[in-house]
Amino acid sequence: MCTLDFKKIIMKKLILTLMKTNKLFTLFTIIAMSFAVTSCVQDDDYTVPSSLGDEENALLQTLLGTATEVSIAQVKAMYLVESDPGDNAAVLIDENIYVKGYVSSSDQTGNFFKEFFIQDSPTNPTNALKIALNQVDTYNQFNLGREVYVNLNGLYVGEERIENGVITIGGDTETDDFGTTIVRLNEIKSRQHVLRSPLTEEMVPLEVSLSQITDNLVGVLVSVQNVEFADNLIGETYFDPSESFDTQRTLQSCEGATYTEFNLETSSFANFKNEALPVGNGTLTAVVNKTFDGASLILALNSTDDVNMNNARCTLLTPIFLEDFQDVQDNSNLDIPGWVNFAEEGGELWTEQLFSGVGTAEFSAFATGDDVNIGWLVSPGIDMDAQENEILNFKTAQHHLSVDSDDNGIKVFVSTDFDGSDVLGATWEEKTANFPTTATSWYELIGSGPIDLSSYTGTLHIAFRVTGAGNDDDLTGAFQVDDVAIVGN
């Protein structure tokens, strides 16, 4: 920051000296030095300002006094509900409303470009939104944790690229053969619509496992525990020099008997791109984002200061029960020894499926002709007295899912009194798990997260139940289950 008082003292002494020697030279010198002093706000010190300029403060006060606040979730719903499903057109906001958020991303290292995310709270966030603007080095103005108010009246909500799934605020639109997308805010609109408060909050990353990262968290700053880079990446750097734009490096975490994997993406413009990947296990804090085409979720670092992997690498546990469905016969009713395949309503049963060489158990309600389809898939019995600290993990995927609801979804249950045949006569306890939604890419297997079974004794059965309908367009789709594993010691 400029120290104006100090510079004025130095200038005064120089002026007095020069006035004694050359009057003409003194005139030009005074002009030049005065300009240097008053222009020093453009130096290389990027200290975050604690107060706002008069113009920005006036705009903010006017906004808060005249407009209505809406949540980030409400802004995103404007696009998801109002956009034309045929072209996913960006939506013009013509209401006197604003949205508030806290900056979760930083372009200081070059890993983000002409954009920043805001999330709805500095702690325990639930939603985030991207602001696209024609400005680089936004971290000087919109620093991490800065409270930001966006005057939405006259702006657009949509996507920068059709169906990339990253809902964004922009200043205009453009249309091509694929649809209507948003365009970045220009300098004038940025200055008039994206307003800071003097407040900068400490950002507390949301703690998640890799299996818990979903589309709903795009733009949120998260912290992943017990994570490491894949075994085959030892000795590699964050960026692959043979690539042009972005490099994805596989992260993995031990969740029971299997690895859960997720990609970290690094831009070719990141100043840490040539740093070596850490070889240990630990914690990584990053922003949830998507690939350029929106096909996959990724994590993006604000800085490698947010990577702390100094612990020993994790070790997979030996499963006491494992079913990976790799021996299935494609597109036939599931018939695996010990498993019970039962239709509670409708005539549809679970089937065996092979997709890209991966075997799964699938229940599909598509085109069955039944008003309701409910299918159960129950595991063989597992002896819970032979070991301790049992943990259940599995993976699930969806395709053609049309709606998220209890009437059209998948659940997991456990029972200690199932007799091996009477499914409806048993007592089933529902367990909380991470399942795919309509926002999850088709056929993308996601981890359930660890499910604690250590309190159970005797013989335990695991059951998956899917509900759908074969003649209702609002209740259709299919779910797949894979890699059902219980570990213990």
Characterization of the model:
The strands form five sheets. Strands 1, 2, 3, 4, 5, 6, 7, 8 and 11 form a nine-stranded mixed sheet that branches. Strands 19, 20, 22, 23, 26, 29, 30 and 32 form an eight-stranded antiparallel sheet that branches. The chain is mainly beta and 489 residues long. It contains five helices and 32 strands. The longest helix has 16 residues, at 4-19. It folds into four domains: 4-42; 54-200, Beta Barrel (OB fold (Dihydrolipoamide Acetyltransferase, E2P)); 218-311, OB fold (Dihydrolipoamide Acetyltransferase, E2P), CATH 2.40.50; 319-487, Jelly Rolls (Sandwich). Helix 1 runs antiparallel to helix 2 (23-38).
CATH architecture of the largest domain, please?
A: Sandwich
The total count of strands amounts to: 32
- Measured as a percent range, the helix fraction is 10-25%
* Contiguous helical run count: 5
Structural class determined from secondary elements: mainly beta
Oligomeric description of these chains: single chain
The CATH topology assignment of the largest domain is Jelly Rolls
Average pLDDT: 86
Q: Number of domains in the coordinates?
A: 4
Name of the top-level CATH class of the largest domain: Mainly Beta
Main pleated sheet: 9 strands, mixed
Report the principal-axis shape: globular
Intertermini distance? 59 Å
Strand content: 35-45%
Give me the Rg, rounded. 28 Å
